[in-house]
Amino acid sequence: MSVIYLAVGSVTGTARIVAQAVQQQLEHAGHQVVLDENPSVGALNDSQCDAVLICTSTTGRGDLPANIIPFYAELEQQFPLQNGKPFGVISLGDSSYDATFCGAGALFEDRFFELQGSAPVPRVTIDATETVTPDEDALFWLKEWMEKAL
Ligand SMILES: Cc1cc2nc3c(=O)[nH]c(=O)nc-3n(C[C@H](O)[C@H](O)[C@H](O)COP(=O)(O)O)c2cc1C
């Protein structure tokens, strides 16, 4: 059994629905999930997690959803080194935004690499123009991530 800290960034709720599906699947596999819609470095540390997941949409022009901005800033300020701890990023976006497609997820992936986390599977991008089942797409990716990260 592993503990997973699951940080959610969402504006209109799609990433939240995806994160809930991810939580359910992880718990079904016997793991413990701390799903956090107001994530913070303090909560990440308190969770004593074995792995970290970020599930975030992108807003504005490649911007982070407001609810996950403080977490991103704290990661920069407090720099909690991950010492090889596995992480994964589920990135929701819309490819019609072109250059900023799934930009928020890319920012988190870069940040966790800076913090010396390890990514057993590259982040998944879920394109709102291509899928009406973002939760199923995320679960497909999660299967491989679970096999390699946990
Ligand atoms: C105002 C607005 C700005 C957006 N900007 C981007 C963007 O820059 N890049 C991107 O990939 N998707 C962008 N999107 C698309 C959303 O990320 C996508 O629809 C996502 O599924 C929304 O998830 P949420 O409901 O969890 O926020 C934008 C959507 C809106 C409404």
TrEMBL record:
Coiled coil: none
Cofactor(s) for this UniProt protein: FMN
GO cellular component, one term: cytosol
One Pfam family recorded for the sequence: Flavodoxin_1
Keywords: Flavoprotein, FMN
UniProt GO MF annotations: flavin adenine dinucleotide binding; FMN binding; oxidoreductase activity
InterPro entries listed in its UniProt record: Flavodoxin/NO_synth, Flavoprotein-like_sf
Domain Flavodoxin-like: 4-146
Name the record gives this protein: Flavodoxin domain-containing protein
